[in-house]
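Case study 2.
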Amino acid sequence: MSVGDDGGDDVRLSLVKPMTDEQVPEQRLSPDGLGRAQRRGDACASCAKRWPRPRRPLGRLDDGTVLYVCDQCAPGLEMAQDESRGDSPAS
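Prediction:
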């Protein structure tokens, strides 16, 4: 929505920048156990919360759809991924 050249405000509907392919983890995930909103990227892939809309990319489904997690679930998933790779926190 935009107001003409009469000096009015320019209102943009896009609030979040689209991600580039390089910003999405290469991890491929199974859609098994995910609801429709989770599979579309409209809900957190971990807790299924829809609002605020999840923004952190988790990986992709086999069809290329990006799965997202919310800010509350992201730290726990990052720690789990680090442990599965054998990374340990610095002591």
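The two ends are 52 Å apart (CA to CA).
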